[in-house]
Amino acid sequence: MGGMPVEGVASINDRLSSGIGAQFQGGGAIAGAGANMMGFGSGMMNQGYGAVNNFIQDSAGTNPSGFVRGGMDAGQMFAHGGSQANIAQGSGAATGTAREMANQAFGVTGAQSAGTMNQGFDQNNVANYMNNDVLSGQIDAASRDVMRNLQENQLTGNAAMAAGSGNSGSSRRAVMDAIATRGAADRVGDIAANMRGQAYNTGLGIEANRASQNAQLGQQNQQFNASNQQQADMFSAGAGNQLLGQGFNIGANQLESNLQREQQGNQFNTGQFNQNMQFGANMGMDANRMAQQNQQFGANLGLQMGGQGMAGMQSGANMMTSGINQQIAAGNFQRGYEQQLLNNQFQQAMSPYNALNFYNQIVGAPTVLNEANSSSRGRSSGFNFGFG
Asked: pLDDT tens-digit profile of 244-290?
């Protein structure tokens, strides 16, 4: 007989071997992907917290008064433009006009009737054509679209564009606003100059026509005065006094009108100045508020990126750990099988010795025939098969 039987060990079949290999390769792929995710998460975290630090430094260096000061400077520029409204003025107390009217009446002598002539060419009248309430109102109406476009389109467009690019508080935006304001002021000045120039030319034409009429009236008066000298002498005294009173009345009315216009003009200019200064201050505060909001948004975004980066690192670490565990599990399975083979080989190698020990335990020691006083001795290997 071949001795006691020894249990065998089944081999790893192709399917199991393929599964173990796939498990090991899959674990390596998972571990590699996890390591890559950890690297990506670390980079994202560093970028996010770096962005937070930058935004914090920018926020610490922000000077709100700078925005307000820039807005107030722009408002002061608007205010000066709004406070330069010209108020049409009369010539005040028309003492000279009153005396001239009276002298024309008192000066009628003989056959002369100079009181029927107009004043002729008057440079003051030309100036009044250039500066009066009607023309000022027309200039304001013609300039309204320019100022409205500045306030509602150009300045708001500059603010929106600067906000979209994150440069709300930049000097470039202030330069763009100043250029737009200066352009609007230039266009308003051009409109006023053009309209006042046209009024001046119209005044020149009117006064020139009046001078021409004087020349014609002079010739007519010379013919008329030849036959009316006595009537003119009688009329001149009463007419002179009447015209003197009218001239003083005209001067008093002009003076009162001038005072009212000057007061209205000062009130209008003061209101425009204060309104534009407040507008500029509001622009500065809005710019500062927008800058603060952008900084807060950037800080929150950076913190979010940092948190996502940390989460990505944690997920990558978990994936890498899972992959490594898969590889270790595959290795442990292979090692267990190899250990089982070694144990089986050991049992096979020990099979003859186990059979001898078993025989000694059951039968006893062999008999020695050539020694009368021989003794039998058994050996136990210490193996216990659990037999009763």
From this structure: 677 667 767 777 777 787 778 778 778 877 887 777 778 777 877 77
Residues 6+ apart with CB under 8 A from 376: 364, 365, 366, 367, 368
- pTM attached to this predicted model: 0.33
- The model's pLDDT over 140-191, given as tens digits with 9 standing for 90+, comes to 998 899 999 998 888 898 888 888 887 777 788 888 889 989 999 999 999 9
Q: Is 382 exposed, middle or buried (0-12, 13-18, 19+ CB in 10 A)?
A: exposed
Distance, in Å, from the CA atom of 188 to the CA atom of 176, rounded to the nearest integer, reads 18
